[in-house]
From TrEMBL:
This is TetR/AcrR family transcriptional regulator. InterPro entries: Homeodomain-like_sf (IPR009057), HTH-type_TetR-like_transc_reg (IPR050109), HTH_TetR (IPR001647), Tet_transcr_reg_TetR-rel_C_sf (IPR036271). PROSITE patterns: HTH_TETR_2. The keyword DNA-binding applies. Residues 25-44 bind DNA.
Protein backbone atom coordinates (compact mmCIF):
# COMPACT_ATOMS: atom_id res chain seq x y z
CA UNK A 1 0.00 0.00 0.00
CA UNK A 2 2.80 2.45 0.81
CA UNK A 3 4.20 1.89 -2.68
CA UNK A 4 0.92 3.07 -4.24
CA UNK A 5 0.81 6.14 -2.00
CA UNK A 6 4.45 6.93 -2.82
CA UNK A 7 3.74 6.51 -6.52
CA UNK A 8 0.77 8.88 -6.31
CA UNK A 9 2.90 11.44 -4.49
CA UNK A 10 5.73 11.10 -7.01
CA UNK A 11 3.36 11.60 -9.94
CA UNK A 12 1.65 14.54 -8.25
CA UNK A 13 4.98 16.20 -7.46
CA UNK A 14 6.19 15.74 -11.03
CA UNK A 15 2.98 17.24 -12.44
CA UNK A 16 3.18 20.17 -10.03
CA UNK A 17 6.83 20.81 -10.81
CA UNK A 18 6.57 20.50 -14.57
CA UNK A 19 3.19 22.08 -15.25
CA UNK A 20 2.11 23.97 -12.16
CA UNK A 21 -0.78 23.78 -9.71
CA UNK A 22 -3.55 24.04 -12.33
CA UNK A 23 -2.43 20.76 -13.91
CA UNK A 24 -2.51 18.92 -10.58
CA UNK A 25 -5.87 17.19 -10.85
CA UNK A 26 -6.91 13.93 -9.23
CA UNK A 27 -7.89 12.53 -12.64
CA UNK A 28 -4.47 13.34 -14.09
CA UNK A 29 -2.61 11.86 -11.14
CA UNK A 30 -4.72 8.68 -11.17
CA UNK A 31 -4.27 8.20 -14.93
CA UNK A 32 -0.50 8.66 -14.78
CA UNK A 33 -0.15 6.49 -11.68
CA UNK A 34 -2.37 3.80 -13.16
CA UNK A 35 -4.82 3.71 -10.25
CA UNK A 36 -8.49 4.46 -9.75
CA UNK A 37 -9.96 7.48 -8.00
CA UNK A 38 -11.06 5.44 -4.97
CA UNK A 39 -7.41 4.43 -4.48
CA UNK A 40 -6.32 8.07 -4.42
CA UNK A 41 -9.15 8.99 -2.06
CA UNK A 42 -8.28 6.02 0.18
CA UNK A 43 -4.75 7.40 0.65
CA UNK A 44 -5.43 11.14 0.73
CA UNK A 45 -9.13 11.60 1.42
CA UNK A 46 -9.56 14.36 -1.15
CA UNK A 47 -7.74 16.50 -3.70
CA UNK A 48 -6.88 18.88 -0.87
CA UNK A 49 -5.33 15.99 1.03
CA UNK A 50 -3.22 15.08 -2.00
CA UNK A 51 -2.16 18.69 -2.50
CA UNK A 52 -1.25 19.06 1.18
CA UNK A 53 0.83 15.88 0.98
CA UNK A 54 2.61 17.10 -2.17
CA UNK A 55 3.34 20.41 -0.49
CA UNK A 56 4.77 18.52 2.50
CA UNK A 57 7.04 16.57 0.12
CA UNK A 58 8.15 19.80 -1.54
CA UNK A 59 8.87 21.47 1.78
CA UNK A 60 10.85 18.46 2.95
CA UNK A 61 12.97 18.52 -0.23
CA UNK A 62 13.59 22.21 0.34
CA UNK A 63 14.38 21.84 4.05
CA UNK A 64 16.66 18.83 3.50
CA UNK A 65 18.93 20.96 1.36
CA UNK A 66 18.90 23.79 3.90
CA UNK A 67 19.62 21.43 6.80
CA UNK A 68 22.46 19.79 4.88
CA UNK A 69 24.55 22.96 4.96
CA UNK A 70 27.54 22.35 7.18
CA UNK A 71 28.19 25.25 9.54
CA UNK A 72 31.52 27.01 9.17
CA UNK A 73 33.38 29.37 11.49
CA UNK A 74 31.60 32.30 9.82
CA UNK A 75 27.93 32.40 10.87
CA UNK A 76 27.22 35.43 8.66
CA UNK A 77 28.51 33.57 5.60
CA UNK A 78 26.44 30.55 6.65
CA UNK A 79 23.31 32.70 6.87
CA UNK A 80 24.04 34.16 3.44
CA UNK A 81 24.60 30.69 1.99
CA UNK A 82 21.25 29.60 3.42
CA UNK A 83 19.54 32.56 1.72
CA UNK A 84 21.27 31.75 -1.56
CA UNK A 85 20.11 28.13 -1.30
CA UNK A 86 16.52 29.34 -0.95
CA UNK A 87 16.85 31.37 -4.13
CA UNK A 88 18.53 28.48 -5.98
CA UNK A 89 15.62 26.21 -5.01
CA UNK A 90 13.13 28.82 -6.21
CA UNK A 91 14.95 29.18 -9.54
CA UNK A 92 15.06 25.41 -10.01
CA UNK A 93 11.46 24.80 -8.89
CA UNK A 94 9.34 27.87 -9.72
CA UNK A 95 6.00 26.04 -10.01
CA UNK A 96 6.52 24.23 -6.74
CA UNK A 97 7.56 27.47 -5.07
CA UNK A 98 4.52 29.34 -6.39
CA UNK A 99 2.25 26.60 -5.02
CA UNK A 100 4.01 26.67 -1.64
CA UNK A 101 3.82 30.45 -1.44
CA UNK A 102 0.10 30.37 -2.20
CA UNK A 103 -0.43 27.74 0.49
CA UNK A 104 1.72 29.76 2.88
CA UNK A 105 -0.61 32.72 2.49
CA UNK A 106 -3.50 30.50 3.61
CA UNK A 107 -1.47 28.60 6.19
CA UNK A 108 1.66 30.55 7.25
CA UNK A 109 2.63 27.84 9.74
CA UNK A 110 4.01 25.72 6.88
CA UNK A 111 7.00 28.06 6.83
CA UNK A 112 7.75 27.73 10.55
CA UNK A 113 10.59 25.18 10.08
CA UNK A 114 12.29 27.39 7.51
CA UNK A 115 11.86 30.49 9.66
CA UNK A 116 13.18 28.64 12.71
CA UNK A 117 16.29 27.53 10.82
CA UNK A 118 16.92 31.08 9.59
CA UNK A 119 16.44 32.38 13.13
CA UNK A 120 18.86 29.76 14.49
CA UNK A 121 21.46 31.00 12.01
CA UNK A 122 20.80 34.58 13.10
CA UNK A 123 21.26 33.54 16.74
CA UNK A 124 24.68 32.14 15.78
CA UNK A 125 25.48 35.53 14.23
CA UNK A 126 24.37 37.29 17.43
CA UNK A 127 26.48 34.99 19.64
CA UNK A 128 29.47 35.83 17.44
CA UNK A 129 28.78 39.55 17.93
CA UNK A 130 28.10 40.04 14.22
CA UNK A 131 24.58 41.52 14.29
CA UNK A 132 24.02 45.28 14.16
CA UNK A 133 20.34 44.98 15.04
CA UNK A 134 18.28 42.82 17.40
CA UNK A 135 17.61 39.28 16.22
CA UNK A 136 13.89 39.94 15.67
CA UNK A 137 14.55 42.87 13.39
CA UNK A 138 17.25 40.97 11.52
CA UNK A 139 14.83 38.06 11.05
CA UNK A 140 12.15 40.40 9.68
CA UNK A 141 14.60 41.96 7.23
CA UNK A 142 16.10 38.72 5.97
CA UNK A 143 12.71 37.00 5.68
CA UNK A 144 11.17 39.93 3.81
CA UNK A 145 14.03 40.28 1.34
CA UNK A 146 14.32 36.57 0.59
CA UNK A 147 10.54 36.16 0.25
CA UNK A 148 10.41 39.22 -1.99
CA UNK A 149 13.16 37.84 -4.20
CA UNK A 150 11.42 34.46 -4.32
CA UNK A 151 8.17 36.12 -5.38
CA UNK A 152 9.97 38.14 -8.03
CA UNK A 153 11.46 34.92 -9.41
CA UNK A 154 8.13 33.10 -9.72
CA UNK A 155 5.86 36.04 -10.57
CA UNK A 156 7.82 38.85 -12.18
CA UNK A 157 5.58 41.33 -14.01
CA UNK A 158 8.25 41.55 -16.73
CA UNK A 159 8.11 37.80 -17.24
CA UNK A 160 11.80 37.48 -16.45
CA UNK A 161 13.17 36.70 -13.00
CA UNK A 162 15.62 39.13 -11.45
CA UNK A 163 19.21 38.72 -12.56
CA UNK A 164 21.73 37.09 -10.26
CA UNK A 165 23.27 40.54 -9.83
CA UNK A 166 19.92 41.95 -8.66
CA UNK A 167 19.44 39.10 -6.19
CA UNK A 168 23.01 39.43 -4.96
CA UNK A 169 22.57 43.20 -4.60
CA UNK A 170 19.41 42.78 -2.53
CA UNK A 171 21.16 40.27 -0.27
CA UNK A 172 24.18 42.58 -0.01
CA UNK A 173 21.90 45.42 1.10
CA UNK A 174 20.13 43.42 3.79
CA UNK A 175 23.40 41.97 5.10
CA UNK A 176 24.97 45.43 5.24
CA UNK A 177 21.96 46.60 7.23
CA UNK A 178 21.95 43.78 9.77
CA UNK A 179 25.44 42.31 10.10
CA UNK A 180 29.11 43.03 10.43
CA UNK A 181 31.20 40.65 8.36
CA UNK A 182 33.44 38.46 10.52
Amino acid sequence: MADVKDKLLAVAYRVLESEGPAALTTRRVCEEAGVTMPTLYHHFGSRDGLVAAVHAVALEKFMAKKRALTPTDDPVADLRTGCEHVLEFVQAHPSVTAALMARGIEQPSIFEPSYALMRHRLERCARAGALRVPIERAAEHVWAVVQGLALSIVASPSGAPPSRATSAGALDAVFQAIADQL
